[in-house]
Design brief:
- This protein has 92 residues and is mainly alpha-helical.
- The protein has one domain.
- It is 65% helix and 0% strand.
- It has helices at residues 2-26, 30-39, 47-53, 74-91.
- It is globular.
- It starts with a helix and ends with a helix.
Length: 92
C-alpha cells in the first residue's frame, strides 16, 4: 500500500515540475527563474526542492526568492506569479 502512495506522489511531483517548467518556458522566464533561485537566495536551492516542499504548486514563484532582489524586479515576478496562480486554479 505504501509503495502505491509513494509512486502516486512521485508522479504528481513530476507532473507539477514539468507543467511549471513549461509555464516558465512559455513565458520566457525559465532561465531567469533558475538563475534567481541559485543567486538571490542566501543558500542556493533547486526547483526540485521547491516542488517537493510546495503544498499545491501555487507558491512556486512566491516562495522561491525575494523578487525585489532579482534583476527582473518585483513587478515582473508579481505579474508572473499571478498568471501562474490563475493557471493552477484552472487545473483544479
Amino acid at each position: 500500500m505504501r509503495t502505491k502512495g509513494k509512486a502516486r506522489r512521485q508522479s504528481e511531483y513530476m507532473k507539477l515540475k514539468m507543467t511549471f517548467y513549461k509555464f516558465l518556458s512559455d513565458n520566457d522566464a525559465l532561465n531567469e527563474y533558475l538563475d534567481n533561485i541559485k543567486k538571490v537566495n542566501d543558500t542556493p536551492i533547486s526547483l526540485e526542492y521547491l516542488v517537493k516542499k510546495s503544498v499545491n504548486g501555487t507558491d512556486l514563484i512566491s516562495s522561491a526568492f525575494i523578487w525585489g532582489s532579482s534583476p527582473e524586479g518585483y513587478e515582473y515576478w508579481r505579474d508572473l506569479d499571478m498568471k501562474w496562480r490563475v493557471r493552477c486554479d484552472a487545473r483544479t
